[in-house]
Amino acid sequence: MSGENTWLDWAVKLQSIAQAGLTYGKDKFDKERYEEIRKISAEIIAHKTEIPLEKATELFCNETGYQTPKIDTRAAVFKNSKILLVKENNGTWSLPGGWCDADCSVKENAEKEVLEEAGIEVSAEKVIAVQDREKHNKPVYAWKICKIFILCSIKKDGNFTANIETTESRYFSVEEISKLNLAEEKNNFEQIKMCFAAYENKNWQTQLD
Question: What's this model's pTM, rounded to 2 decimal places?
Fold first, then answer.
């Protein structure tokens, strides 16, 4: 992590240590100390960002069990050599996707997100890449995220219906995408170009961070 974000690295490590201690610790006094460490980690986040302490605590200190990265799936769906993007409520464009639900596999989640956000039934076929989000996307978050890009094939075209997450869905060429306002925190131009490369290369090898 870059020097300017060293404070975030410290906060994440403190939170991870505290969460593990709360999970596996037996002594009630030790648990109180771990709770205090967790509180301090949230205070660091709140102090260095514009996030209120209550919100930072809710986002950063609400999990139990051993801390692991969150899983985010992004589906690459092609038609006539163009890729499917959905328009977010804030006007930016992204690959269909989102957090992997606890009751879904990665494949099931990728397919579900495309259906929910674009109204299209797809089959998840190949993993394009497994990426450490903070190495590719900004801003840096206070929790680790594992991004999984998946090449999908269309099973059944559908009709898009505006929903609570997306207001439009369309297929774009690389040239058209270069002019769009992308949801950079979810997917940038380089990541979408990677999806095109995987689609065009039948011998594509999964990229791993």
Answer: 0.79
